[in-house]
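Comment thread on ticket #2218

A.B. wrote:
> Attaching the input chain for the structure job we discussed in standup.
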Amino acid sequence: MMRYQDKVRDILANMDRYHRAYYESEAFSGPSLYFHRRALETRQPSGSLAHLEYVYATLASWGMHRMGKGGSKMKSFEDFRRSTKLLTDKISQAQRFDCRAMDNPKWILVGEIFKEIEVMASGTSLVGNSKALHHMMPNIVPPIDREYTLRYLRGNTNIKNDLDQEWLSLKEIVSDFFIPIACHTDFHLMANQWVSSQDKYPWDTSVLKVVDNLLIGWKKWSAQPVAGAGAQARVPLSGRSRRIGA
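C.D. wrote:
> Ran it. Output below, let me know if you need it in another format.
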């Protein structure tokens, strides 16, 4: 936890603030929310055609497939579906895991799934595969994003194109950042309250997704000008805020 402990403290100290900023921004709705929820609702039994179609549609609506020459690209649906056929039992087993009770054999199993899923045709797999796995096992794998997750934790959006290293990065982020937050008593209680209020908080679909939402909320909150500070913006620091000049 040493690498991210300041970030863990910041999220725990500001969870209400970031949660409010996330929902006040109203940044995401429409297909991105609908397919996300349907993918989660159809995850059992694992490997069903409907579930895989919803996962695939979710990733497309979340910006993982860009039209034209540039940007990220997804593999064909048939390639994605084919890559999951031998993973059904492993996915079903991982769906029963609790992120607060992970051990090495469980991580090995999740790592095997991460490395064998084929959904992205371009570049790296960390973002695309984590988003796919989140909709199969939301209790273990959060969706990782360059602009929110990596920028918040590391200050950059760089990902090395190496599947083994990408898995180790995902495991580190989940183990050293997401899980310590999820295990905190106050956070766990509050997150479960938000998850239970789906009419009000439709994106709070799991405890780990709540953490992900708070990272987006951090980005939205940090971009807001401080009252009376002109063009200055707020940046959280261990539960406090300081000003940065334009």
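A.B. wrote:
> Thanks. Noting for the ticket: The chain has one domain: 2-244.
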